Amino acid sequence: MDHFLYSGGVLHAEGVAIPEIAAAVGTPFYVYSTATLTRHFTLFTEALSPLPHLVCFAIKSLSNVAVLKTLGDLGAGMDVVSIGEYLRARAAGVPGGRIVFSGVGKTREEIRIALEGGIRQFNVESEPEMRAISEVAVSLGVIAPVAVRVNPDVDARTHAKIATGKSENKFGIPIARAREVYAEAARLPGLEIVGIDVHIGSQLTDLAPFEAAFAKVAELTGALRADGHDIRRLDLGGGLGIPYSRSNEAPPLPVEYGAMVKRRLGHLGCEIEIEPGRLISGNSGILVSKVIYVKNGEGRDFLILDAAMNDLVRPSMYDAHHDIIPVIESAPAAPSQPFDVVGPVCETGDTFAKARELPLLAADDLVAFRSAGAYGAVMASEYNSRPLIPEVLVKGDQFAIIRERPTYEEMIARDKLPPWA
Ligand code: LLP
């Protein structure tokens, strides 16, 4: 459920009409709903209660500081995978004690900044990284709290580019070797073991792979405790999928996920951490774009938009589906036709949808891509020298620009001529 609905035949973000925002900021732009972000975060905290838990929003899915502040003020923790994300969380006022640091390649410099600034835990991805964290901690005279990310070798049954829990993936330490790695961690002078971490993939539409992974984590918890380790937190990663197509998808709900977590892990007495990104941010945002031209091609018509693959790369990168809807609601019986929906970028991959049945749209009409809050703005680039597009946050009947569209001059001024030119 989200807060992008038609009212009086016009698409609104909460109480604000989309054409009003378009008139103020120009197209294309992203717009996020505070009420939807809040609702999705709350669904997770309710689903995990009464277990002690911390919902750490995966910043990688949507990293605007205004969004992080919105969630942080509700008590959310943050899952970061770079020091850039860590500093965004801190800029949003989230204390280090609520930030977990994941990611396969943390540099010593990143580790140092996180240790100096305060961190809840490092999710360790390899033995060399574990040793580096210990060394940096010793050099600073502090102890680094760590969980080891184990790779449970389960098939997440999602898109190959976003599955992470199989042994062939680059993530984590094989669960079969976990005991020896924890034994080394316990010997390293700069580390304190606080728990176990697992994340098997993203956009999972079935609970079974989670359940298989969590059963292995429960078993490992017992084994590590028997070895004398203080396993008090279980970080279960993110990955719960969302319905991208309203018509035919019904992934499990947070409440069902929470019930399964309690069933599998509730008896262990651990604090549960989760790292959802997409389920909180995905349906909290839309991308609004304008039709530039309708081009009649051979046997097909193209809807050429002012948004392109550089603004929303998911369709070209993962063949992802996003529902596309007109901002001015069409009558139920209004005629429609199939369109190839494309952007202006000079490659065929810049295609959002093929033969998508849409109302008879014309130049200057506005359309919205639904479910674009997660992995939309954060994956944007300036390909074809198209400046990054603005982000807008709505709350009730108010809206605010939370990232400005740079001018062409600003974009170009970042390039510097060498002294010999
Ligand atoms: N924790 C870790 C360690 C992760 O690697 C990820 C996502 C998450 C949490 C959050 O997963 P979520 O709840 O959002 O599924 N760009 C791709 C998705 C990449 C996901 C990477 N890792 C896409 O657009 O579908």
Could you please describe the fold and organization of this structure?
The chain is an alpha/beta fold and 421 residues long. It folds into 2 domains: 160 residues, Lyase, Ornithine Decarboxylase, Chain A, domain 1 (Beta Barrel); 247 residues, TIM Barrel (Alpha-Beta Barrel), CATH 3.20.20. Helix content is 29%, strand content 25%. It is built from 12 helices and 21 strands. The strands form 3 sheets. Strands 4, 14, 15, 16, 17, 18, 19, 20 and 21 form a 9-stranded mixed sheet that branches. It has an 8-stranded parallel beta barrel with strand order 5-6-7-8-9-11-12-13, surrounded by 5 helices. Strand 8, helix 6 and strand 9 form a beta-alpha-beta unit. Helix 5 packs across helix 6. The chain is globular and about 70 Å long. 47% of the residues are buried. The model has no long low-confidence stretch (mean pLDDT 96). The structure holds ligand LLP. The site of ligand LLP has 21 residues, from helix 10 and helix 11.
Secondary structure layout:
Elements (H helix, E strand, L loop, with lengths): L3 E4 L2 E4 L2 E2 H8 L3 E5 H15 L4 E6 L6 H8 L4 E4 L2 H9 L7 E3 L6 H10 L3 E4 L2 H14 L3 E8 L21 E2 L3 H10 L3 E7 L10 H19 L6 E3 L18 H12 L5 E4 L3 H4 L3 E12 L4 E5 L8 H5 L5 E3 L9 E7 L8 E9 L6 E4 L21 E5 L2 E6 L4 H6 L8
Parallel strand pairs: 4-20, 5-6, 5-13, 6-7, 7-8, 8-9, 9-10, 9-11, 11-12, 12-13, 15-17
Antiparallel strand pairs: 1-2, 2-3, 4-14, 14-15, 14-19, 16-19, 17-18, 20-21
Bound molecules: ligand LLP.
Ligand LLP binds next to helix 10 and helix 11.
